[in-house]
Amino acid sequence: MRLDGELLLIGCGKMGGAMLEGWLAQGLPSGEVVIVEPNLEIGAALARRGMRHVAEAERIPTDLRPAVVLLAVKPQMMEAAAGSVARFAGPGTFFLSIAAGKTLGYFARHFGAEAAVVRAMPNTPAAVGRGISVAVANDEVTPAQRAVADSLLSAVGEVAWVEEEELLDPVTALSGGGPA
Q1: Is residue 36 a contact partner of residue 57, using CB atoms and an 8 Å limit?
Q2: Is residue 116 in a domain?
Q3: What is the pTM of this model?
């Protein structure tokens, strides 16, 4: 797996960590990943594997220009996470969120209407590489960015795209609740 730049992963808990393992297994170089994770034990393990880790978003290197900012935090933590990475909104970067219930409109309010955003919901079997992710992209996402998002999500299973965001929530309820 190759990106045209670095990947900034905000949150490396169960789902973020599962996705990271899938990316590394598909060949994403560990040196191309910067991770914000407050759990210092997880951070130390990431650093031993060659990834750059910071415990707080305020410590993200100021010269970082990620190709992808992946938001893998709980919905109740999204406000702080979105505020800490809004500075990356602009050409060449897209946001990929796996937080339930945070709409494309929510991200437009935080990052601006011109920000490229993909909203996706992987289900729990993604933790073992057998999941299904349902995704929707806003109009700002380029075909190349959509292909990168598809590649990142497919590292933990199959990906289905919907054109209407309203379809994401019922599909998520069915595919997320069934395996649980």
Answers
A1: yes
A2: yes
A3: 0.92
Contact yes or no for 149/161 (Cβ under 8 A): no
In a domain, 127, yes or no: yes
Triad 9, 42, 39: Cα angle to 5°: 85
Tokens 């992710």 belong to which residue?
Answer: 133
The domain in which residue 105 lies consists of: 7-177
Instruction: Tell me how far apart the alpha carbons of residues 85 and 95 are, in angstroms, rounded to a whole number.
Output: 9
Q: What is the CATH number of the domain that holds 27?
A: 3.40.50.720
Helix (H, G, I), strand (E, B) or coil at 75: helix
The answer to whether residue 65 sits within a structural domain is yes
| Other beta carbons less than 10 A from residue 52's beta carbon | 19
Tens digit of each residue's pLDDT (9 = 90 or more) over 64-117: 999 999 999 999 999 999 999 999 999 899 999 998 889 999 999 999 999 999
Flag whether 2 is in a domain.
no
Summarised one tens digit per residue, pLDDT across range 109-140 is 999 999 999 999 887 766 676 778 899 999 99
> For the chain, what is the domain count?
1
| 105, 83 contact by CB (below 8 A) | no
User: SS3 letters for 5-53?
Assistant: CCEEEECCCHHHHHHHHHHHHCCCCHHHEEEECCCHHHHHHHHHCCCEE
For 81, counting Cβ atoms within 10 Å of its Cβ (0-12 exposed, 13-18 middle, 19+ buried), the class is: buried
